[in-house]
Amino acid sequence: MRESAVLSAPAKLNLALHVTGRRADGYHLLETLAVFTEFGDRIKISPAERDALALTGPYADGLALDASNLVVRARDRLRDAFPDTVLPPILIELEKNLPIASGIGGGSSDAATALRGLARFWNLAVEAGELADIAAPLGADLPMCLAARPLLARGTGEALEPLSGWPALDLVLVNPGVPVATAAVFAGLARRDNAALPPLPPARDLGSILGWLGQTRNDLEAPARALAPGIADAIAALQATGAVFSRMSGSGATCFGLHASAKAARLAADAIRAAHPGWFVTATRAMASES
């Protein structure tokens, strides 16, 4: 019998996110630089007598076991894409370590990780592009989370440009414990035709990245703050503990603070955790480009 497989489902961080337009069908056009962190959820795939999903971890209670769960939908879409192939039943165990509805792509990353893991577990001959097509109806973040490397994403999130030479970044993630509905944040935008991202710096050291970030925005931060004032408290906590740059990720409410070293990030996370024991706080690292 095939052995179990354990995979990491990293958090996705939008270091910058510009809303540049809106299509006639209502979908917003974006430009974003996204990175993926070492900290995240975990997925274990094992042989089983019938398909099943099990949930563990500190945020498991906020998820369902039915088709409203993106992992279940991803599994079923992959099965449906190979109707003539015998795919044995599997148990997927999801360890939910990331807050739900928090702007760091947790559900999308879980679904993308499940798709990659199941494709290998079932020995499916499926290319990355085919897997992206299967995943696309599950959400705009899925193509990014399937790539799971530093990248620029444009359009509705489907046009990806992987980045080379992007360094690892030490950071702290903070969520003040308030879920934010993405649709409500987009509805609160003052304008939808903002300027695109500036050109990336030729040098990829921390100083150059900080200089570039200073020219960018997260256009969703202002409407998200109006819905969840705790976002401002999270950013203030990051700044007070020595972050060299801080911003909200995605549609919120998770915020990140960049630090010059892993030690500085750990010390900052310890201080914020002590001052706000009810918040989600972790020190981690955004992974570097593969080349």
Element order: H for helix, E for strand: EEEHEHHHEEEHHHHEEHE
Task: Name the CATH architecture of the largest domain.
Answer: 2-Layer Sandwich
- DSSP summary, beta strand count: 10
Radius of gyration: 19 Å
Q: How would you describe the oligomerization state of the chains in this entry?
A: single chain
Number of helices: 9
Would you state the CATH class of the largest domain? Alpha Beta
Strand content: 25-35%
Query: Main beta sheet: strand number and arrangement?
Result: 6 strands, mixed
Task: Describe what you observe in this structure.
- 30% of the residues lie in helices and 28% in strands.
- With 291 residues, it is an alpha+beta fold.
- The protein has two domains: 5-162, Ribosomal Protein S5, domain 2, CATH 3.30.230; 169-286, Alpha-Beta Plaits (2-Layer Sandwich), CATH 3.30.70.
- Helix 1 packs parallel to helix 2 (106-121).
- The mean pLDDT is 96.
Sum this structure up briefly.
The protein is of the alpha+beta class. The protein contains nine helices and ten strands.
Task: Show the helix and strand layout.
Layout: E1 5-22, E2 28-47, E3 52-56, H1 70-81, E4 90-95, H2 106-121, H3 128-135, H4 142-147, E5 151-155, E6 159-162, E7 169-175, H5 182-187, H6 206-213, H7 221-227, H8 230-240, E8 245-248, E9 255-259, H9 262-275, E10 280-286
Parallel strand pairs: 3-4
Antiparallel strand pairs: 1-2, 2-4, 2-5, 5-6, 7-9, 7-10, 8-9
Helix pairs in contact: 1-2
Summarize this structure as a short list of keywords or feature phrases.
291 residues; alpha+beta; Ribosomal Protein S5, domain 2; Alpha-Beta Plaits; 2 domains; 6-stranded mixed sheet; 4-stranded antiparallel sheet; 30% helix
